[in-house]
Amino acid sequence: MAEADDRLLMLIDDEPAQCRLITALAAREGWRTLVARDSETAIATLGTRQGMQLGAIILDQWVPGDDACALIAELKARRPALPILMLTTSASPLLAVEAMRAGATDYLIKPVAPDRLLQALRSATTREAPAAELQPLTEKIGTTLDFDSMIGAAPAFRAALAVAAKAARTQQTVLIEGESGTGKEMLVRAMHAASPRAKAPLRIVNAGGIPANQIESVLFGHEKGAFPGAFDRHIGALQHADGGTLVIDEVDRLPLHVQERLTQFVERGDVQPIGARHSFRIDVRLFACSNAPLRDLAEAGFYHAPLVDALSTVHVHLPALRQRSGDIAALARYFLTRIGEQPGLRPLGITDSALALLKAYDWPGNVRQLQATLFRAAVFCDAETLTAQDFPNLSTMVGETPRSPAPISDGAGVMLFTADGNLRPLEEIEADVIRLAIGHYRGRMTEVARRLGIGRSTLYRKLSELGIDNAA
């Protein structure tokens, strides 16, 4: 691979605007870009002096068309160690499978966010990064939108779902926090589907993928001539979502002045595009997602505290996968079932040894990384069942003998023992059982009481005694 201070990228693309964009983005990471307009030029370039210095290839599927996978295979045959990323407008899992089997390192669906492109390049070419089976994919396996389909029995996860399910039926602003890959987007889609605005527009804006000097215009819009380069009037995402729901992902990445403007919108409900003389009211429900705890950022002086208060009418925290390792087996079997439904793949089982290996890993990329890892393993598996041998890179990182996991639940999602092997206090176990029941029955308190074999008045008394929020 080329050295970090002299990295050369070959872009196989015939669209000038996209070439300029990718060239500029890659330059942020120190890449020089060599553009090949067709597959013949690309193959010929491999044999040149510049071709021998290549550190990665980005291929737009439209250049070779139906022969994209054949070109990937040809490039891989000539340069086996060279990472190849494919850009495509297709979300077809079959194309993802074919591209990966042909040798693609990653599969990016256009329009790809700048951060996603740079992360893919970084993951593909950094020596310290997890190897191929752990690289994130952007394949879109059909997402179910109801709360009942969300897999997990860990008390913290079920409690989060209970809060979200109850809040979904209201018009309140919701802040969802959790590490990247924990399922925040899945949760907001489920909440929207269960909300009174389910048939109204749902728009998602990823603040982390938009340059800081453009995000204000993206959200609020601008008038023609409002600033240099504003050649036309632009309607912002807030106005586009009028009557529906707007999700601001990575809200922790908003610049301070945009945070202040967003606070005013949440408090007053009116929008004033950049350069406009007057504001106007709109009806938008706001969901905000953050990878970092906003309250901590505000206390450290890095975030606008009033916005944290405005967004936190309802607060949901999704736990990291390492904090609910007891759910990994159920998640793995669920993902393998869904993966097996995709064209070009088939249902696969998974052995206990493979599950033990999955549980032994920390999963910094959380549920999304687990799904991507299983997808990649399924693509290359010739047997009927995944074994630990189907995750060679994971085995290398974890070690030959998976470490003993922390004490986990008995399978029902309730911890019975403490880390030192002693039983937990009955009061704590009872509180977890009640939280689990509330989450499982999506806050239907009559059903919760009936299933627990107690009256509603007894249930509410226990909620008060144990300090359990009714929504959790």
What do you see in this structure?
With 472 residues, this protein is α/β, with parallel strands linked by helices. The protein has 4 domains: 7-129, Rossmann fold, CATH 3.40.50.2300; 155-317, Rossmann fold; 324-398, Helicase, Ruva Protein, domain 3 (Orthogonal Bundle), CATH 1.10.8; 414-472, Arc Repressor Mutant, subunit A (Orthogonal Bundle), CATH 1.10.10.60. Helix content is 42%, strand content 13%. It is built from 20 helices and 14 strands. The chain has a 5-stranded parallel beta sheet with strand order 2-1-3-4-5, sandwiched between helices. Strands 7-8-11-6-12 form a 5-stranded parallel beta sheet. A two-stranded antiparallel ribbon has the order 9-10. Helix 7 (155-168) packs parallel to helix 8 (184-193) and helix 11 crosses helix 13 (305-311).
